[in-house]
Design goal:
273 residues; paralog of FGE (formylglycine-generating enzyme); four-stranded antiparallel β-sheet; three-stranded mixed β-sheet; disordered N terminus
Length: 273
């Protein structure tokens, strides 16, 4: 038995040492706006992965998983959703928003005919069809996403100062993010960028959570945070120097430019003409 396990670990080590090619962007779907990507699949409430032993016994985080060795558990649901390709403002090359609360994120998306992604939709977009624990694969590679910066101590008083200039200066001092899409290797199989690292993203929580919103994907100082790394500790009013978001929409409800589609098949704008 021990020899068999040793063989498995050796095989896994070989697989994990092979460079991971970046997932190719499948491009836009006719069911989604051009700046969104179609995400489909079956989501399971619990996804178990086998963590390979690490070299640092004091670090509780998992940095490598046995490839393809997963167990799907709990309630399942079919996911079919359009997801913003980049973190808000969803523009490649733009600096993603931070200091946004759950309420801020929800309002911003709704004003653009979109909504916040659910926790299950976000996880599906990150995991891909093979249910991988990390957006880009099965082991942490610190070079693939912006997630390996050193944590910088923050000044809570300045972040909560009534003077917006004081807040702005502190946020700029702490900023270690990058512009959206800069890391071409930080992309999920569905073509969604920066789901790990950069800024944490607000989602609509599972019904079992205490708060209506949760944060996903970690930020620039958490290389270990994967597709199921939910941070559900904060109330909906919480906003911090690394909290951002992205939006979702139901397929077929928006045209290629993001305008709402009427039941007759055209956008509301074209129908008014």
């Amino acid at each position: 038995m021990i020899e068999a396990l040793a063989g498995l670990f050796t095989f896994a080590s070989v697989l994990l040492s092979v460079p991971v090619a970046p997932s190719l962007d499948p491009g836009p779907s006719e069911l989604c706006p051009n700046d969104m990507r179609l995400v489909t699949g079956t989501h399971f409430d619990v996804m178990q992965h086998y963590c390979l032993p690490g070299t640092d016994k004091k670090d509780p985080h998992c940095y490598a998983y046995f490839p393809g060795f997963s167990a799907e558990e709990g309630e399942s649901k079919n996911i079919n959703v359009c997801v913003d390709q980049y973190e808000a403002p969803n523009k490649k090359g733009s600096k993603p928003y931070v200091m946004k609360s759950f309420h801020d994120a929800k309002s911003w998306c709704e004003k653009r005919n979109r909504r916040l992604c659910s926790e299950e939709e976000w996880e599906t977009a990150c995991e891909g069809w093979d249910k991988r624990p990390l957006a880009y694969g099965w082991s942490v590679d610190r070079k693939l996403c912006n997630s390996d910066k050193l944590w910088t101590p923050f000044d809570a008083k300045k972040l909560n100062d009534p003077d917006k200039d004081v807040v702005k200066a502190e946020v700029e001092r702490l900023w270690q993010g990058t512009t959206s899409g800069k890391f071409l290797t930080c992309v999920s199989p569905f073509g969604v960028f920066d789901m790990m690292g950069n800024v944490e993203e607000w989602v609509a929580s599972r019904k079992t959570r205490k708060h209506p919103g949760a944060l996903m994907g970690g930020f620039w100082a958490k290389p270990w945070t994967g597709c199921r790394g939910t941070n559900d500790a904060h109330e909906a009013t919480f906003a911090f120097y690394e909290t951002g978001f992205r939006c979702c929409a139901d397929p077929g409800t928006l045209d290629a430019k993001g305008k709402r589609v009427s039941r007759g098949g055209g956008s509301k704008k074209s129908r008014a003409k």
